[in-house]
Write a structure and sequence with these properties.
InterPro entries: NAD(P)-bd_dom_sf (IPR036291), Sc_DH/Rdtase_CS (IPR020904), SDR_fam (IPR002347)
GO molecular function: oxidoreductase activity
Keywords: Oxidoreductase
Radius of gyration: 18 Å
CATH superfamily: NAD(P)-binding Rossmann-like Domain
Number of helices: 10
Protein name: Short-chain dehydrogenase
CATH topology: Rossmann fold
Family: Belongs to the short-chain dehydrogenases/reductases (SDR) family.
Largest sheet: 7 strands, parallel
Strand order of the largest sheet: 3-2-1-4-5-6-7
Amino acid sequence: MEALRDARVVVTGAGGGIGAALARRFAAQGACVVVNDLDEGAAKTVADEIGGICVPGDASAVVEPARAALGGGVDVFCANAGIGAMAGAEAEDAVWERVWDVNVMAHVRAARALLPEWLERGEGRFVATVSAAGLLTMVGDAPYSVTKHGALAFAEWLAVTYRHRGVRVHAVCPEGVRTDMLRAAGPAGDLVLAPTAIEPEDVAEAVFQGIADERFLILPHPGTGAYYTARAGDTDRWIGGMNRVQRKLEEGSGA
């Protein structure tokens, strides 16, 4: 990972959880790290800890101020900020639009701002924190599941379109991770994610191994790939299994 020494790195949603673990890991490799988060206090705490640069604010508009803070360029962009809704089809449009904006459009806007620079110099790295929900689904949260599928699709499109021009793309798809988001997932998170949850640092380690191996799909949980294969190989059987999980969730909640 010598190539990451002195690399200019941006991590969104880095005030805690996976983002903070990524920021710490990049800094440990000698990278210059911009720590971005809506929570300015949390971002500053992490930035001070790692000797990074705090650039608070919306992840959708971070590229230009981060580029300026890093002296004019970005080498690695970690599109890590994400939100859930724990809602179904009944969620109002405003909820769907907010989750879509953070989980998908923030990635699109970042790529739009970064690609001219990366294509001109023939290199750049885009790391998208997607979630296993983008490969599979998440019971109890339609906006999260749908937008994470969208985030994966966009990352895949970037890789297909620009790999031969030096742009490397990684889609990070963990299952449960012990973060505030998991704690906010309620009974669905307790049932599906908590039993096999890992630490944010485990995700960061998987990301660095994936970068070293130049793998597009990074799966911090070893069983995710088998689930993904099963889903593709027999989709009806997969849906039946997930529907049993949904029924178990409803029974537990008294629905």
